[in-house]
Amino acid sequence: MSVKAFKLVPAVEREMLMGDKARINIECIECCGKNLYIGTNDGSIYHFLLEEKNSPDEKTSFTVTKQLHKYLSVRKAVGELKAASALNRLLVLCDSAIMLVNMMNLEPIPTGARIKGAVTFTLNENPVSGDPFCVEVCIVSVKRRTIQLFLVYEDRVQIVKEVFTQEQPCAVAVDGHYLCLALTTQYIILNYNTGASQDLFPYSSEERRPIVKRIGRQEFLLAGPGGLGMFATVDGISQRAPVHWSENVIGAALCFPYVVALDEEFITVHSMLDQQQKQTLAFKDGHILQDFEGKVIVATTKGVYILVPLPLERQIQDLLASHRVEEALVLARGARRNIPKEKFQVMYKRILQQAGFIQFAQLQFLEAKELFRSGQLDVRELISLYPFLLPASSSFIRSHPPLHEYADLNQLTQGDQEKMAKCKQFLMSYLNEVRSTDVANGYKEDVDTALLKLYAEANHESLLDLLASENFCILTDSATWLEKHKKFFALGLLYHSNGQDAAALQLWVKIVNGDIQDSTRTDLYEYIVDFLTSCSDHELVWKYAEWLLQQSEEIGIYVFTRRPQEEGQDNSFNPDDVMSCLNKYPKSLVKYLEFLVLERRIQKEKYHTHLAVLYLEKVLNLKSLEAERNEELFETKAKLQSLLRESDLYRTRFILDKISGSDLHMECAILYGKLEEHDKALHILVHVLKDFAAAEDYCVWNSKNRGILYRQKLFHMLLTAYLNSSSAEHELVMAAVDLLNSHAADFDAALVLRLLPDSWSVQLLSSFLAGAMRESIHSQRMSQIALGLAKAENLIYKHEKVKLKGDTTVLSDRKLCQVCQTPFCEPAFVRYPNGSVVHTHCAAGRLVTSNTNRHFSSPSGRT
Q1: Distance from the CA of 371 to the CA of which of 43, 63, 127, 240 falls in 20 to 30 A?
Q2: End-to-end Cα distance, the chain
C-alpha cells in the first residue's frame, strides 16, 4: 500500500554541469555535509555547495553553487569518489588508481601518494585501527581473487593486509574485521583477521549486477536471487525479512526505516519494518543511487536529484488519515531510534490515541480499548463524543489539534441506532474498567457521572452497584438524569451516597405508597427496614417507625430488634420508649419483648412478666375461639411453657393467679415448681394430665444445676405420687416401674426398696436393681481410688518432709528475710525447699517476689 515517504527534488541539472557538451556523463557522486562532488567520464571532478531551503508550504528545494571544476591528469572516467573529512581528503578512483586530492581545491597532495591496481574500493566505517588520523580503505585489486586493505593518512598510504578469495570478487563492503564480498557465483562473509568465512547464498554476476551495502553495525544489504533484497549479519544470518524489489535493481540505499531501490525505470521504497513496498517514483535512465549521512541522492548520466524524506510524523498522519492503523503504528515504533526519547513518547501516545479513535469509529472495540490504554487517553476525550454525558460543571476541553474528525456520536454513526447502541455499550464497559485505575485520576466525577447516565439510559443492572459503592457522581447532574429516566430508587441511593438519607427515605416511601412508580425493587419495603436498621440517624428511625409498623408489624419491628449490638446502650432506643411506641402494635410488642428477654437476656422482671402475660393472654384468646388444634395456639403454648421454665424473673404468683380457673394445667405445674410446691405440680402432671413423660421432664429440668440430692428428692416425690394413689391403677404402677428402670442412678436404692410394695417381684425391678448395684459399685470403687490417691499424695509429702529435715538451717541475727530483707528477731521461721528463709508473717502475708517465687516453687507446693 502506497505512502508518500519521499519526494524527488532536482539538485544539479545538466546545464550547470556540462553546458552543451553532450558527451560528458556522470560516473559517480559523493556528498559530505554540504559538499557535493561529481565525477564524469572525461576525467573531471565538479565541486558544488548544496544548500537546502524549506518554504512555509513545506516545499523543499536546493540551491546549488558551483565551487570548482578540476580535470585530472588522466583523461579517463572517474570510477569512485569517497570523502575522508577528518583528513580533508577526497579519494578518487581513476584508471585503476586511487589518488588523494584536497577536498576544497581538488589539488593532488604534494607527496603524490596513491593506491594502484584497484578495480573498486570502499571505506571501513567501523575502523579497527584506533588511529583518528587515518581511514581504512578496502579495495578489490586488479590481481586475480585478491582483496587489499590500506591505511590512508593525510599524505601517505600503507598496506595492511592482503586477502585471497576462492573466486574473483566483484563488489565489497566492510565492517570492522568483516568483509562482505560478492564473488562470481555467491556472496560470502569473510573475517580477514581470522580467515574464517561464511557462505551466504548463490547468485550469478553474469545475469545481474551485485549489490553489497553496509546498512548498520555488522549488517549488510545484498541483492539476492528472485528480486529479493536480503539482509545479512556478520554471523551469516538474517534478522530481518527480505524486501521484494525488481529483478533488475541497479542500486540500493538506506534511509531508515526505508530501503530505496533503483532500476531502469523506477525508484521503489520498501519499509524495513513490515517489508511492504510503500512508494514508487518514475525515474528513467537512472544509474546511481547512494545515501550520504541521511541524504539519498540519485543520478542519471546528465543530472543529480535528491530524494527528500517527508517528516515521519507527517507520514504517520497520512497513514492514519487513510485508516491504515497498523502501518502507522509500525512506522511510529520504528521511528523511535530517530527521535529524542521525550519527544517520541509524546508523539507516540498521541498516535496511539488517534489510532484508537479510528478503530473505535470502525467498531473495533477491543483494539480501540487497547490503544486507548496504551496511549493513556484522557477518557473525557471519548466521553465528549457522547452528547450530554459530561456534567455541566466539567472543565474539559478537547485536545488541539483534534484526535479525530467527529463532532459527536451522531456524526460518527450517521444516526444508525444499532451502531450507537454498540458504542454506548463499549463506553459503559470501558468506563467501568478504568474508573478505579489511574486513568480516571483527577476527573473521577466526570467518569462516574457519565457512567451513571449510560447505566440509567440503558436500564442496566450495574446502576445500583455503582451507587451502592463508593462513587463520585455529581449530584445535580445525576439527579436530573435519574428523574428523567424515572429511576427513583437509584435516585434514593444517590441521595444516600451524598449523605442525604432523609431525602432518600422520603423518595422510597413514596414508591412503596404508590405515589410514584418504580419497579426496580419489589422488596423495597424490606430494603427500607434494613436501611433504617443500620441507620445512625436515630431521629430518622423514629420518624419512620410508625410507618414501618403500619405496613407490617412482623417485619417493621426489625428496625428495633436487628440493630447493631453496640447501639443497644444508646438512650435513643431505650426499651421503655420502644415499648411505648409499640403499644398499638401487639404483634410487634411480643416480638420486641422476645428480643429483650430471649436474645438480649435482659434481666428485668417487668419485661419477663410482660412477655409471659402477653403469651398467656394470646393462649386464652385462641382457646376461647375454640382453636384447640390451631397451629398458632400450639406454638404460643410452647413459647409460654418454655419461658415459664427457663426464666426465674417473672412474678410467679401474679401469673398463677391469671391462670387459675383455666385448663392450662401444664403451665400451672411449671409455676408450682417455681414456687417449690412440687407435690402440687406432680399431682397435676400425674393425676390430672396423666402425662408421665412430662412428669419425668419436670424432675429433670427442675433439678438442673441443683445437685444430686435435690434431684433424688424430686424423683422420690414422683415415685411416691405413683405409689400412693388412692386407686392402684395399672398405668401408675407401670409408670413407677418405668421410672425406676430408666432413672436408676437418680434414686437412693435403699429408700426405694422400703417404699415398694412387697408384692412386686424381683424380675419386675431387675433393670432398676442392676443399675442401682452398678452405680453403688462404681461409687465404691471411685471412693477407693480417691482414697488411694490421697494416701499416695500424703506419702509424697511425708517423703519431702523427711528430706527437708535432713538439711541444716542456720539462723542468726545477720541472716535476712528473703521477703522483707530485715533480720530475724525470734527463732520462728519458714523455710522453702530451695533453702530460702522468711519470717512466718511474711510467708503468710503476701507472695514472694517473682524471682523468689520461681525458685521457691516445688512439686508439692508445700513448705
Answers
A1: 240
A2: 106
Q: Which helix (H) or strand (E) holds 546?
A: helix 538-551
228/200 Cα distance (integer angstroms): 14
Instruction: Provide φ and ψ at 41, rounded to 5°.
Output: -80, -10
Across residues 767-783, what is the average pLDDT?
82
Cell (9 digits) for 432: 467501568
CB distance 758 to 730 below 8 Å: no
Dig out the grid coordinates for 227 from the structure. 528480486
Q: Could you give the residue ranges of the DSSP H alpha helices within 595-728? A: 605-624, 631-646, 652-659, 665-674, 678-683, 692-702, 708-723
Strands (E) located in 225-314: 228-233, 243-244, 251-255, 258-262, 266-271, 277-282, 288-292, 295-299, 304-309
State the burial class of residue 825 (Cβ atoms within 10 Å of its Cβ: 0-12, 13-18, 19+): exposed
pLDDT tens digits, one per residue of 21-51:
778 889 999 999 899 999 999 889 999 998 8
Give the Cα separation of 534 and 562 in Å (integer). Answer: 8
What's the pLDDT at 511?
Answer: 95
**Residues 498-518, buried b or exposed e (16+ Cβ, 10 A)?**
bebbebbbebbbebbeeeeeb
Task: Count CB atoms within 10 A of the CB of residue 479.
Answer: 18
Confidence of residue 567 (pLDDT cuts 50, 70, 90): very low
Q: Residue 821: is it exposed, middle or buried by C-beta count within 10 angstroms (0-12/13-18/19+)?
A: exposed
- Averaged pLDDT, 680-703: 89
- Cell numbers at residue 452, please? 451513571
Give the three-state DSSP class for 46: strand
Q: 174 - beta bridge partners?
A: 179
Contact 616, 655 (CB under 8 A): yes
Could you report the per-residue pLDDT of 479-499, keeping only the tens digit for each?
A: 999 999 999 999 999 999 999
Average pLDDT, the chain: 87
Longest dimension (CA), the chain: 162
Cβ proximity of 140 and 172 under 8 Å:
yes
* CB within 8 Å of 365: residues ≥ 6 apart: 359, 422, 426
Which amino acid does the sequence have at 650? Y
Residues 766-778: what's their mean pLDDT?
A: 79
Cβ burial, residue 552 (10 Å; 0-12/13-18/19+) = middle
Q: How far apart are CA 419 and CA 425, in angstroms?
A: 10
Which of 560-564, 698-702, 743-747 is predicted least confidently? 743-747
Across the range 62-71, mean pLDDT stands at 88
Enumerate residues 6+ apart whose C-beta is below 8 A from 8.
267, 281, 283, 298, 305, 306, 307, 308
pLDDT for 171 equals 92
Which residues does 143 contact at the CB level (< 8 Å), separation at least 6? 117
Q: Per-residue pLDDT tens for 612-637?
A: 999 999 998 888 887 555 788 899 99
**Which amino acid does the sequence have at 244?**
H
Q: What would the DSSP string read from start to end of 563-623? A: S-GGGGG-GGG-HHHHHHHHTT-HHHHHHHHHIIIIIS----HHHHHHHHHHHHHHHHHHH
Degrees, nearest 5: CA angle 361-367-368: 45
What the block records as the C-alpha cell of 816 is 535476712
CA distance 845 to 839: 10
The phi-psi region of residue 79 (left if phi > 0; otherwise alpha if psi is between -120 and 50; otherwise beta) is alpha
Q: Which three cell numbers stand for residue 41?
A: 567520464
Query: CA-CA distances (angstroms) from residue 108 to 44, 46, 70, 141?
Result: 13, 15, 11, 22
Rounded to whole angstroms, what are the CA distances from 682 to 65, 642, 743, 793, 844?
A: 135, 18, 17, 47, 53
What is the per-residue pLDDT for 137?
95
E strands in 417-510 = none
